[in-house]
Design brief:
Two copies of one chain form a homodimer. Chain A has a five-stranded parallel sheet, sandwiched between helices. In chain A, strands 6-7-10-8-9 form a five-stranded mixed sheet, with helices on both faces. Chain A has two domains: 108 residues, Cobalt-precorrin-4 Transmethylase, domain 1 (3-Layer(aba) Sandwich), CATH 3.40.1010.10; 137 residues, Tetrapyrrole methylase, C-terminal domain (Methyltransferase, Cobalt-precorrin-4 Transmethylase, Domain 2, 2-Layer Sandwich). Chain A contains ten helices and ten strands. The longest helix of chain A has 12 residues. Helices cover 33% and strands 19% of the residues of chain A. Chain A is an alpha/beta fold. At the A-B interface, helix 1, helix 5, helix 6, helix 7 and helix 10 of A face helix 1, helix 5, helix 6, helix 7 and helix 10 of B.
């Protein structure tokens, strides 16, 4: 059996009680920090919490060599600890299909994810978010995908959550802003969120250009590109994200 | 200080370690089951876990009379336990703005939410979901909002997560299907999800019409109306949601 356990957003204490119990009772406990990171903790602390040694999986273990872990899960209960909520990363669902095909049962224990946390931190309404996208480090020309997604979302009056690339290192907002502007996104308002789930998250709303110069501190960072605002969203952004007064112009 | 603590999806063990610690050290602990429910538990079990009596807030405490709780939070540390992830419900962000205006600091401890869990359970990719919407019990003519949102999302090739009304009682999929069909939605494929976060979630993909006749068991229920599918999403729906073979036709 293969149990994917969400660890939530920031440190080792963001895992649920159910998740800790499942990890403690598994035969083997693995963790992967390839699809996301838990910036506020380290392996040693997680090992202390679970009370045992933890195997760290790399990209290869999750993708090309995932069969060997699944093979092992035919005989043992294997817990895979994952930052955020499992399966939001497509890597996990590919692994889960492979497991079920090989006759290995799978289970998910959910954790907090940035895709809901961003609503709480910004005050933006969940039902006003459209598709999300990722801003990748450019190899050659920057990908137009995130900008196209923002434009698609604008066509239905929806905000866009942008995840920032994690490899080779977590991308910060200034770099993301530069890439987005180069790909043709400009003259718009956005909200930057840093260190969601920590005791000191930073949430700041401004023009995309100005966010590129704002000091958000360390990662992880995400960006939300805004569409039109509900009046309550506007109130929240003023209160929680020091939004400039002119965003009142975005209120429908 | 007012701390909103997410309890996750199903029972009292879905809260994070951080959430339990914060509730245990608060002066007053409240819980609200107005914006959502934790079907797998009861107040008594939550009280045993936290080790103290818990005050149950009703709609009035959260909305019209929210000032009295906030006034109390000027002098005491008040923890508000909330199903799912706090602030996904707009009721919470309204309360949070009110608190900050009255000079009361607020904090959020995140929990697992159906909006990320639905990706794990169905295998649908988070970045392919558009706006979400709610299916409300009709008073007179059914609202066209959810159907309009589905159509907006289709225009950008995005799936739609539909929350089902909770009042006066949690709506189940057959009722939601009836309301949606009456509002003009038909000839489409959807996925029903029941009891996310429990040990026995049910996930079933079929035509909207057929889902209306499927036995999902008890609540809570949500529905995802499908747009075009990525090949991996198709594979997941076949494996995890007993999708009928003809959904291959939805693959882009």
């Amino acid at each position: 059996m293969l149990t994917f356990i969400g660890m939530g957003l920031w440190d080792e204490k963001d895992i649920s009680l159910k998740g800790v119990e499942a990890a403690r009772s598994a035969d083997v406990v693995c963790v992967e920090f390839y699809t996301s990171k838990l910036v506020g903790t380290e392996i040693k602390k997680i090992e202390e919490l679970i009370g045992r040694e933890i195997r760290v999986l790399d990209r290869g273990d999750l993708e090309d060599n995932s069969k060997s872990l699944i093979e092992e899960a035919k005989k043992k209960n294997i817990a895979v600890l994952v930052p955020g909520d499992p399966m939001v990363a497509t890597t996990h669902s590919a692994m889960r299909i492979e497991a079920e095909r090989m006759g290995v049962r799978t289970k998910i224990i959910h954790g907090a994810s940035i895709i809901s946390a961003v609503c709480g931190l910004t005050g933006l309404h969940n039902y006003r978010f459209g598709k999300s996208a990722s801003v990748a480090y450019p190899y050659g020309k920057p990908s137009r995908t995130p900008v196209n997604v923002v434009k698609q979302n604008w066509s239905i009056d929806a905000h866009t959550l942008l995840f920032l690339d994690l490899h080779p290192e977590p991308m910060l907002i200034p770099t993301a802003v530069e890439i987005l502007r180069e790909a043709g996104l400009d003259n718009c308002y956005a909200v930057g969120v840093a260190r969601a789930g920590s005791d000191e998250p930073v949430v700041k709303c401004d023009t995309l250009e100005k966010l590129g110069k704002y000091d958000f501190g360390g990662g992880l960072h995400v960006l939300v590109v805004l569409a039109a605002l509900h009046f309550m969203e506007y109130e929240c952004l003023k209160t929680f994200a020091s939004a400039p007064p002119e965003i009142e112009g975005l209120v429908e």
